[in-house]
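Notes to self, Acyloxyacyl hydrolase:
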Amino acid sequence: MPQLFNTFGYYLKMMRALLSGFFRFGLGVILLLLVGFKGIAQNQEPFILGGALQQGSVIVHTPKIEHFAGTHPIGFELNLQKQTTGTQYWQQLYRYPRFGLSLTYFQYQNPVLGQSWAFSPYLSLPVLQKNNSAVYFRFGTGLAYLSNRYNFEQNPTNNVISNNINAVIQTRLEYTRKISAHLGLLTAVGLNHYSNGGDTKPNLGLNIATATVGLNYYHQPALQFKTQPKPPLTQKNFVFINTSVGVKQRAENDLNKYIVNSIAVGTLRRLNQKSTLALALEGFYDPSLFPRRGWDPRVPAGTKPDIRRASLTGGHELNFGNLALGTHVGWYIYRPYKADAGTFQRLEIKWQFHKNLYLAGGLKLHDLIKADIFEYRLGVRI
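result:
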């Protein structure tokens, strides 16, 4: 009976953390689910069911987490994929990729980290295809529940995870080979990244290198791919304005949550069906910078630093129909209070849900590896 209550308490804790996480990462979750379920739910295209075992190794990406060296999680993955067949022109541009939804479990074999569950929509792009074998590059992002988080008294050495609910980014290179009409073998190597994006500190992040072996079931063995005529680009130049919001914690000794905002005005240049270039002026207001004045000798006593910032931001968007994967770099051209790096990077998923409106969610970083904040963006494009 005590074991039953302990099990019930564990799942109650997990559900409470999930609800909390939905409030923190709600827009990103809704965006990913809409894209993922829209891709899977179209019954006219074939689907693939998969199951796999995974062996992992925690990557020590900073000396601060050397105590996790030698941690080798084991786990499994279940996934459902939709094979595109060319119902839209962009699908043939990418040689008929697959959309998928995955559920991934890891037991870390380390009492500090515990175990994790991750749910992630993803896209698999063909790299090489020959007869019954193929190589795919897979990319996905979603939500993860990790059972053990940082606690000053009960779990002080877990400096990688401070929230039970985190974002997860998964990439991997897959080799598949059909062994019968309906069955195929899968082997893969990949990288999983877990982080809360600066929402709570400490947040050094958890990176896991993975090796995977599994089976796929193909419900429709013989595929017929369609060829669509190339549609014309009716408009190549666009002007946009957008605004973003995010929540962050400055440091583990400051428990306050700070709301960070930005606004951007810029232009887009559509090069072709796949690629779009972006250039923008962006302004930021980050009140988490204010507390730094208490120990910064550059700030005179009794004064407040000017924390306003402006940047020139450029980037590229890789288009998949109404979905785009953006990579951006920004240079602060106005930064009177120099509290961190002079440049930033942004990885973003954008959904053009209307001709003139889009939603986006992404991670803003400094120095490539330091997560600054998760941003949720609403924009207008004309």
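- The CA atoms of residues 61 and 207 lie 8 Å apart.
- The first helix runs from residue 2 to 40.
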